[in-house]
Amino acid sequence: MEHITLLIGIVIVTALVFDFTNGFHDTANAMATTISTGAMKPKAAVAMSAVLNLVGAFLSVEVAKTISSGMLDEASGIKPEVIFAGLVGAILWNLLTWLAGLPSSSSHALMGGLIGATLASVGFGGVNGDVVVMKVLIPALAAPLVAGTAAMLATRLTYRLARKADERKTAKGYKAGQITSAALVSLAHGTNDAQKTMGVITLALISGGILGADADPPLWVIASAGIAIALGTYLGGWRIIRTMGKGLTDIQPPQGFAAQTSAAVTILASSNIGFSLSTTHVCSGAVMGSGLGRKGGVVRWSTATRMFVGWGMTLPAAGLIAAISAVIAEQGDWGVTVVAVLLVVSSAAIWLASRREVVDHTNVNDVDPIAPQNADATGTDAATGTDAARPTDEGAEPQPAGVVTTAIRAVVPPPTTGAAAALSDTESTPRDGPGEPSKPTADVAP
């Protein structure tokens, strides 16, 4: 029993570490558009988001039940070592995608890790496939489409209703609206994502015989999960904030308001019915939808494609890391120790790699070097016809467009020379509001 108690303690600590990484990995979901449009200062934005993440953690436990008693079969012989290995897979994938500035799903990293570790330890009998399909995979596909469509329609409606209004006054109003909608997204993020850690800790307590089957998360579990995700949110995932705020599209205040409102409604609705939704998928879809909703708006498909590839890799990659960790951890105390040491060493190596090019609140709104401002809607440089998402060294020949960009260009032909020049002139000058040019930001050295 002492061994089990110590192991469960390790699982709980590891789960809270994952919750912390979830916080700074997903800060961009709530605050990227608010920061990129200048509606709030970066540090104030993440502080507000952190507080509301904490509050949101106390609003519901439906998603926690999906994790603790729905996705996996506790009666199949799942041990705390398996849960520990699943968390290791999720943490390492979160850190790797954070280093790359890639808005991948922390939720899917956690689920992929738990599923991979369970398959390696127990087999297919330990996973409730129908729950995974109905409450994980289908929402993963539907959520960004629903949020993106809603944001696109909301953006078009917003510009139509405000077409005769004073642009300076509406810009200020939309920035105020952005703050409100960002608060809703932060509250929704705490409600949805903090619950996933609650579910993992509850599952560990059930597997160790401390709680009965189908038990709700205790109050101390809810509070600790809320505090961990809030601390991570306050740290700020600046690399991912830059990608979502500047890399996908150029966002004006009306677009930011429409995107965040659409995302908040989608996340809150899914939390109430127990869908373990990816807030990253929802918010990214909403940002792209807002880009498509504005006349002359740009979606940089090269950046979006890189993001889609990351989404597709999250479940299997986290699952593979977790499966290997589970095989090692089940060898006994030395196996758990080896996995824990590898987790610490790998995390430290990723952090050291991130110090080579620091992104923080002071430069988060600088232009992302992988997504120049003169890219047209296909992600192709309008002037040269080359892939604008690929940086080139000074004096080097521009690189040809990739396969995906070429395919998109074949379906949606690039604008004519005159239209391309007009679009380049329009989109190369970020705006603080409709019709109000802002000061150009400094380029970041690759």
Q: Numbering strands along the chain, what is their spatial order in the largest sheet?
A: 1-2
* Separation, N- and C-terminal Cα atoms: 53 Å
* Total discrete domains: 1
**What series of H and E elements makes up the topology?**
HHHHHHHHHHHHHHHHEE
Radius of gyration computed on alpha carbons: 22 Å
Query: What oligomeric state do these chains adopt?
Result: single chain
Main pleated sheet = 2 strands, antiparallel
Strand segment tally: 2
Estimated share of beta-strand residues: under 5%
Number of helices: 16
Which stretches are poorly predicted, pLDDT < 50 over at least 5 residues? 368-446
Shape: globular
Q: Classify the helix fraction into a percent range.
A: 55-70%
Mean pLDDT: 75
Structural class: mainly alpha
Membrane topology: Multi-pass membrane protein
Protein name: Phosphate transporter
Pfam family, one: PHO4
GO molecular function: phosphate transmembrane transporter activity
